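Case study B.
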Amino acid sequence: MSTPILSAHNLVKHFNAGGFGAARKVVRAVDDVSFELAPGETLGVVGESGCGKSTTARLLVQLLRPDSGSVRYEGKVVGPELPLKAFRSKVQMVFQDSFASLNPRMTMIDAVAFGPTVHGMSQSDATRKAQDLLDRVGLDPSRFGGRYAHELSGGQRQRVNIARALAFDPQVIVLDEAVSALDKSVEAQVLNLLMDLRRERGLTYVFISHDLNVVRHISDRVMVMYLGEVAEIGPAESLYSAPRHPYTEALLAAMPSLDPDRRTMEAPLAGDPPNPIDPPPGCRFHTRCSRAFGPCSTLVPPSHTVGKSHVAACHLNSVKEHVA
Amino acid sequence: MTQETVHAVTPLVRVEDLSVRFAGTPPVHAVNNVSFELAPGEVLGILGESGSGKSVTLKTLLRLLPERKTTITGKVEVDGQDVLALEGRALADRRGGVASMIFQDPSLALDPVYTIGQQIAETVIRHEGISKSDAMARALEMLEVVRIPSAKRRLDNYPHEMSGGMRQRAMIALALACRPKLLLADEPTTALDATVQIQILLLLRDLQKELGMGVIFVTHDIGVAVEVSDRLAVMYAGSFVETGSVKDVIRDARHPYSKGLLAANLVGAVPGTRLDAVPGAPPPLNALPEGCSFAPRCAHAETACGISPLPIWTGGNGRWARCVHASRAGALAAAESTS
Amino acid sequence: MAVTAETVAHLAKIEKSQGYWRSVWTRFLRDKVAVCAGLVAAGLVLMAIFAPWIAPADPLEGSMIKRLSPIGTEGYPLGADELGRDMLSRLIYGARLSLFMGVVPVLIAFAIGAAIGIAAGYLGGWVNTITMRVLDVLYAFPSVLLAIAISGALGAGILNGLLSLTVVFIPPIARVAESVTTSVRKLEYIEAAQASGASSLRIVRDHVLGNVLGPIFVYATSLISVSMILAAGLSFLGLGVSPPNAEWGLMLNTLRNAIYVQPWLAALPGVMIFLTSISFNMLSDGLRSAMDVKQ
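Model:
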């Protein structure tokens, strides 16, 4: 792989969940997460609630400061080696809640133009650019540019949010459940728009979603997270067809089948995902894993390379290595 | 439980020409001329996007809509009773007795200040007038039915002490406590994680078989609808646009909107390729176009689409689609096969 | 990717949507109670401004023979007070000081309190904790007691009354400002602005202020009536405004001995205080609901 455009190195983020001293509770939202993004690729991130997807996204765009670890842009550590403001124009984010992401007192043109003016563009140039971008995301600027957020539908608002991110001419866009709140028919339109923009502008995406179908459709590689850790990461093709972590298998098996003749007959996992406060020792998944054995409850599984750029953190893979 | 003779011919639910309007200027046409039947023990999935009227249709069956602001016309019969004519006590007896409902958000059904056991027992006492200890025994039994682990301990839990999936199970237990003939499910798995969602879906499917109830399951997720339903109705802008068995609708959708939904769910899509997306957005319910509401977004739209009533294509097995294009294609195919 | 000016030259005209304040105004006009309250409040303000032109007589000129004339006396439509001064004129002139004492402390407290609250809310963390705890100490005193204590320490006089009332209103306004700002700060559009690389000052100016000042201001207007009543109370106790100035609270005080002789006359300043405070309260209620943007 050439120099990754964006990479995460051992990111750790814990949140205080109340209590003092010995009774202090810590949410281990993200624990030692590392990955790399090649220019132009799309990395899908999947996992259940509390797995740390959104925290990872906010760490990646530096909206949160990691407790330890670093984010690098083109090999340069953000902060010491690359000024934050320069990084901001390279890496942008689109949030899930399209309404809360837009200032209710700003017209759509002003919302999109805000970013460029922060980076020194004149107001009139920024407005022109915003008109252009609204047009590109499929909103007639003469009709929608002067409107406010509550006057637009969810799909239209999310298009504005995408235009706002594009206004920086970024290289990377982190999409945190960006299409999840939309109706299916509108979601398909926005997915098309994202795929078109990716091709036109050579964008790199981090696409976070709970919808495995959508992630498979748009991603080159997929990262599966469980309780703040990376369970498996690999090419979408091989990860979906031959998952190497029991959790990935379970997630795939839990997808509704869409085939009336082959309905799901058995739930792959019992119970809810455990609380990220006080996660289980060893492999965090062992409490729900049907194939857990000896070392799982005590030893943290190392990352096993199980294929071309395919890595899974599961003890079963070390057994396979030994057998082979 | 009383033994009742079941007439195989009488449908459990019969809805005829149901329309629901909400007061406003102009009024909101939430449900428009919807008709359907549900046989005892059948599962009907109503599939639609937000604002399609699917939840409103469901709530009408229990008359859960705010009375002052709503005008309901048409006929709604549940278990032979005219629901729209029910008043006061009789209506309350229906709710939770013959028919009960589960929601996306369990906090709509569960009271935070009572334990799960108390709530289930309360409902049973209210509807069946049995003693408190019997009711508590029933509550325990129900928690076991919905497969809540260590049910005895969970009886004394308050809703907030349970995880999301457990709360959903508790709500199902509450809804089924009086052995309803009809269960109305309003997106009960939408807020859940995938691995929990499938557990709840399988549980509902099993319970439906065990108890032989009729179920109307409202969802926006085709995958979920396919997992639980026998029959599927696709709803758009307050109208049913297509119904049929799940297999028929999924394999051979006739209405362009159903086709669009399937494409949007990535059925058979090649990863990375552009999706065959339906353009635009649903029309506002207070300004529906004449004729087919989907016409403004439809690739096959023509002048005939703007004229009410729309032609209906019918296939075998209770299958139909309300679409100019589908009915013409159907007629052509029929002509070909006879010649 | 460079955006060229030529490509967008034809797009320059943008249909401006009905602005936020326009829509607030439309919603406000639909609320009949609020409009009535607004008209009454506006009438009172106009009355205060144009007092010298409206008032039939000099509010300070008394007549010993007309002392405590009942309502409806010839030449004294609302009677005369204990020094034989025309009641109607005094009530009209009284609006000047009473409204002044109601509005000005709230405005000053709004400026100071909102600044403190917004800063604390946006910065969060220990800055927030320390600021809010200090304000809590002030807030813990009952407002009447605090106003009396400060006024008492400073002595009588309009300016001292003004100052004490301002101090009383800073903590509640700052608290509201802090909670509104804290809730806005957590919204994604603020995160998006942070991700744009804008400085904190710029984010507060462009994204926070517009969304928090409205609600804080509405809260502040609801304090106007409280301020008026407190001011009247101070005057009543001999603090704040001093005789012979016309001020409703002070008039209530000086007429209290006449309550057995001319009860209706003695109640008139109270009626004015009641009318003013209720109209300002309803006005602020109407504003609050009109500013509530629904998605």
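The longest helix of chain B spans residues 194-211. The remaining cases will be described in the next quarterly update.
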